[in-house]
Amino acid sequence: MAEPLEPVIDLEAVDEEAQEVAARAARRGFLPIQTNWFDRLFIAIYIAVALILLWMRFLEPAGVSIYLCYVLVLVLGAVIIRKG
Amino acid sequence: MRPSNPWLNVALWVILSFTTLFPIYWLFVISVKPAVDLFTTPSVILDTVYWRNYVEVFHDPTLRRYMTNSLIVSTGNAVLCSVLAFMACYALSRYDIGGKENIFFWTITNRMAPAAVFLLPFFLLFTKVFVIGDFKLYDTRIGLILLYSTFNLPFAIWTLRPTIDGIPRELDEAATVDGASTWQTIREVIWPLAKPGLAVTFILIWVFAWNEFLLAATLTSFNARTITTGLSEYVTTTGTEWGKMAAISIFTLIPALIIFSMVQRHIVAGLTFGAVKE
Amino acid sequence: MRSNKVGWLLLTPTLLLLGVFGILPFIYVLFLSFHQWNPFGASPDRIFIWGNNFRRLVFDGEFLLSIWVTLKFAFFAVFSEIVIGYLLAQLFMREFPGRAVFRTIHTLPLIVAPIVVGSVWRLMTTPSIGIIPYYANQLFGIDINIGRDAGTAFMFTVIMDIWHWTPLVTLTLLAALLSLPKEPFEQAQIDGASRAQIFWHITLPMIRPAILATVFIRLMDALRTVDEVWMLTGGGPGAATRYIGLHIWKVVFPKTDYGYGSAISVIVLYLTLVMCWMLYVGLVAPRNKGN
Fold first, then answer.
1. What digits encode the pLDDT tens for the residues B25-45?
2. ipTM of this model?
3. Which one of C281, C284, C287 makes the best mutation probe of the A interface by having the most chain A beta carbons within 10 Å?
4. C285 CA to chain A: closest CA distance, Å?
5. Which of B140, B217, B223, C286 is the most exposed place for a label (fewest CB within 10 A)?
6. Which residue segments constitute the domains of chain B, with CATH numbers given?
7. DSSP line for chain C
C-alpha cells in the first residue's frame, strides 16, 4: 500500500481559521443581538431613515437644520457599523 | 390531557364548521335568487332555485374573456415558475455555485414585499420603459405572467428545494458514469422523481395566480383582465346586481375548490413556506 | 462536481427574471422617490428635488391615518387569530369522531380568493340583503350598517380576516403542539400543576418559536391586505378602513403624482421591512443565546 499523500493544507489550522473568520463576521457588540457587518449596515440605515423622518416632522419646522440630522446620522451609523 | 366527553367536542366543531361554511352557503343562496326576492326577509332555506344569474354570467362575452384570460395567465405562470424553479433548484442542489445560499435567500425576500408598493414602479415600467415599438407589457397576458413570477417563483424555489435535495446524488452520478449527458440525467432521472413535489408546487402557484387581484387590476385595462378584476368591476359599476356578483364569485371559487380537494394536505405547508409540515 | 457553467446556465433565467421584475422596480421606485414627476401636472418634467417628497409625506394626514388604521387592523386581526387559533388547535389535540372531516372543513377558507372573501362578507353584511344586519336587528335590536358606521366597518374587516386566516394559525400551532414531547406534561400533572401553570410554564415556552413564526407570516399578510377590504367596505366609511395598500392604490396612484407616490411606496416598504426584521430578530435571537 502506498503512503498516503501528505496533506497539502493543514486541515485543523484551516478549521480554526474558518471559525475565527466566522467569529469575526458574526459577533456581539453593544447591540443586544449577534450581528455581522451587513446586519449592522441595515440597522444603521433603518435608524437613519427613522431619525431623518422624525426630524423632518418635528425639529425642522422648529428651525433646526436638517443637516445637523445628517451629521448625527452619519456619526451614529459609523458607530453602529464599527462597534455594534 | 384531561379526559373530556368527545361528543362535546363534536358538538363544538359542528358549530364551528357551520360558522366556516355558512358565508359560502349564503353566497350560493344569493346567487340562485331573482333580484326581486333579495330585499324581502332573508331566508336561509332555499325553496326555489333560479339559475338565470349563472346562465347570464356564462353567456356574457366579456366575462368569458376574463375567464379565459385567468385560465391562460394562471396556467402560463404555473408552467413558467415550475420549470424555472426546477432548473434553479437543480442548479442550487447539484452545482457548487458561489454564494448560493445568498442567492436562495435573496429570491425569498422578493416575495415578502407588499404588492401595493410595486404598483407604481410596475405601472411605469410597463407603460413607459418596457416598450418595444408599439408593444407594451401593459395590459398583456404575458406581462401578467412575468409579473406574477416575481412573487411565485421564489415560492416555487422554496417549496421545490427540499424535493430536489432529497433525490440521492448517487442516482445522477450513476447516470453520468453510464454516459448520460446532463440533459438526459435531468430528463430521465431527476424529472420523474421530482414529479410529485413539482405537481404540488404547480397547483399551489396556479391557485395563487388565479386568486391574485391587485396587480391585475392595476396593470390591465381591457384585453388581459382576469376574472377577479371582473368581479370587482361588477361591484363598482353595477353595484345593485348582487345575484350576478354572487354567481361570478362562485365561478371564481370553483377552480380553487377543485384544487383544494386535490392538495388539501399540502396547503398549510405551502402557505407557510414549508415551515410547517403535516 | 461537474462544470459550474451548466449550473449557472440553469440559474440564469431565474436570476434574470427576478432581477428585471424584482430588483429593477425597487431601484426604480427608490430613484423616483427623490424626484418630482407628474406628467399631467403643472410641470410635467421629472425634476430631482432631494428629500422634499419625504418632507411632504411626514405631514400628510391621510397617509399617516392610513398607516395608523393598518397597524390597528393588523394588531387586532393577528392577535385574535393567534388566540382563537391556539384554542382551536387545543381542541384538535383531543380524539373525537370525525376529526379529519372537521379539519378539512376548517381548512377550506384558506383557498378562497381574497376578492371572493370580500364579496362573501359583503353579501353577509350589506343592509337589507345581508343576513347579519337582519338578525342583529330582529334579535337584539342593533342597527348594523357598515357603510355608515366606522367602528362597525372596522370590526367587520377584522372578523372577515379572522374567518379567512384563523385556519392557518390553527394548523401551524396544531403541528407545533403535536410535535411536543409528552413527558413534561405528564410530570407536571403528577406534580399537581394547574392548567394555567402548565400553559404558562410549559406549553407556551415550548411552542414560542411556532407562535412567532405564525405571527410573522400573518403580520406580513395583514399589513398588505387590500382585496378583501376593497370588496367589503371600499375603504370607507370615510377613510376608516382605508388600509395602506388601499390608500396607495385608490388615492395615491390615480393622482399620477409619481414622485410623491414613489416616496410613499418606499416608506411603506421601509416600515414593512423594519417590522419584518424585528420579528425575525425576535425569532432568531433566542436561539443564538446558547452560543
1. 999 988 888 877 777 777 777
2. 0.86
3. C281
4. 6
5. B223
6. 1-50 (no CATH), 61-271 (1.10.3720.10)
7. ---HHHHHHHHHHHHHHHIIIIIHHHHHHHHHTTEE--TTSSS-S-EE-TTHHHHHHTT-HHHHHHHHHHHHHHHHHHHHHHHHHHHHHHHHTS--TTHHHHHHHHHGGGGS-HHHHHHHHHHHHSTTT-HHHHHIIIII-----TTT-HHHHHHHHHHHHHHHHHHHHHHHHHHHHHTS-SHHHHHHHHTT--HHHHIIIIIHHHHHHHHHHHHHHHHHHHHT--HHHHHHTTT-STTTT--HHHHIIIIIGGGT-HHHHHHHHHHHHHHHHHHHHHHHHHHHHHHHTT-
